[in-house]
Write a structure and sequence with these properties.
- The protein is an alpha/beta fold.
- The chain has a single domain, classed as Alpha/Beta hydrolase fold, catalytic domain (Rossmann fold, 3-Layer(aba) Sandwich), CATH 3.40.50.
- Helix content is 31%, strand content 20%.
- Strands 3-4-1-2-6-5-9-10-11-12-13 form an eleven-stranded mixed sheet, sandwiched between helices. Strands 7-8 form a two-stranded antiparallel ribbon.
- Helix 8 links the parallel strand 11 (303-307) and strand 12 (330-335).
- Helix 1 (3-14) packs across helix 5 (204-233) and helix 4 crosses helix 11 (371-391).
Length: 412
Amino acid sequence: MSFHTFTAAVAGLALAAVTTPAMAAPAVVAHHAPAGDRVTMALPAPAGPYRVGTLAVRLVDRSRPDPLVRSKPYRELMVSLWYPAKDTGRALPVAPHMAPLAAADWDRHSAPPMGIATGAVNWAATPTHARVGAPVDRRAGRLPVVLFGSGDGGARTLGTALVEDLAARGYLVVTVDHTYEADQVEFPGGRVVRAVPLPTKLTPRVIAKLLARHSRARLADMRFVLDQIAALGRGHGLGEEAGQLPAGLRGAPDLSRVGALGQSLGGSVAAQLVHDDRRVDAGVNLDGGYVGRVAKTGVAKPFLQLAAETHTRASEPSWKSFWDASTGWKRELRFAGAAHGSFTDLQVMLPQIAAALPKVPVADFVGTIDPGRSVSAQRAYLAAFFDLHLSGKPNRLFDAPDVRFPEVSLIP
């Protein structure tokens, strides 16, 4: 069972909202596409003033056994760092959206539940706008840090359109794959680790237990990753790339300015991280229901909620309890025409696929909002939020509706 199937089931519980029949049981087309050219896609270019660099790193936490596979005596993770970089021309390779073996696994296991036949799309061919290992652009100064987590079962790559834009605006963004939960994780040396199989019967109680377990594992993962980034900020190395870090990366992270950002379950974990870790100053939840303690405690630090059209405090008990209990700066934005997957890279990828494969049920996953306008609005509000609360740059974007983004409503 893939990320998309589980996310559909989770949406019914964690969002407490009615999903469409196609979302509850996504259509699956033939497992193999006919011979011919495969569909390719592009991501929107970042809007910030800097070029972007990236680096994928394996991190190992030997202080704890793996929380999802207890027979493994340590926890290993793949993370990617995204940061403002010097222009290196074509001297360094452009990072792919998905690593090749992870893309092949996605094609076999994660694409069919979206109605996309195996072999129909070249998932490995989508480029990002980041150069692998590019030196840090020192004009950006020390870099505020943002940790990013995807939805339950999702790969760290699914937030690239938003993450690249933050990096281009001067942030160090760290995206995290949660091993044995993400559909697939590619490690160095050509090793792909798949998710632990889900129970065949996903009842509300089973889903709730899984979400709680995954949430606890993710929280520990994020705090461990933040420890590693803090060490990097003090001038130390990072994981297996300690001797090969891009120029300027050691000492670049500014741990006095840290944010958390996540979609779906990643948004809930972002809130819990804001609550639990004194180093984290502000957080954003992209359309996720709250799981665990934070649903009742709320947070006392700045927090932003972005919601799909049908996701409201009236329909989602955890959003109401979290909102009522939160005592810090808080805002909620609702995107007309958006669906749960609108806050992932599927927002721009699925419409491109559907142009060639018209039977793909795009609206079930990313709604009817214009993809380009959706991403532009998300980027603008995320940048404004983190600029305000991590860098003290004032803006008026949260004071009233903005005519540039008529699809976005400020919810009192």
